[in-house]
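Recall the central idea of this unit: under ordinary conditions, the amino acid sequence of a chain determines the structure it adopts. In this exercise we apply that idea directly, starting from the sequence alone.
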Amino acid sequence: MPRQRDLREQQERLSAATWAVLAEQGVTGLTLRAVAERAGCTTGLVLHTFGDKRALLMHARRLLHERSRARYETAATGAGSPAAALRAVLHQSACLSDDGRDEARIWVGFLAAALADPELAALHTGYNRAFLQRVGRLAGDCRPEWNDERRAEVARALVALVEGLNCLAAADSETYSGAAQRQAIDTTVARLLA
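Accordingly, the structure predicted from this sequence is:
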């Protein structure tokens, strides 16, 4: 029987391979075979770990959420002021770099896949709502006098801005460069918090 450490290392290796396949080939290229090739193992091992392609897809969406959540927490913690924390989290969610553009393409792929899959849609929606809540809390930290409705309104506007920028930049990084996205975020945050 494999040791717990071996199972954890195997899961980490398969997760890294899953992410690499997503970054290179998108959601449509995410197959058991592609992950196995990238991880240097058999498709049987991937199948044993995930069960089927759908389970692999669900795992990959969870992985995207966990990677994002960890970045947001780090960004908010080191930001200083509440407004700086809000901007830092929004900058982390935008695709300001090549890695960010990869993640944006992956996110768009998941969104498209979720339209035809109710279970994936529920997972995707849940993660989006968690991000909305985070942005709402950060907005509330900036303006404690706002009521819950105003915080939610500002959070929806900011998340819609960032996710819209991600979708557009994933296809047109020249027009929606990292600098252009950063400026749009900073200008919008300043206006909403004024």
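The chain has two domains: 1-51, 61-193.
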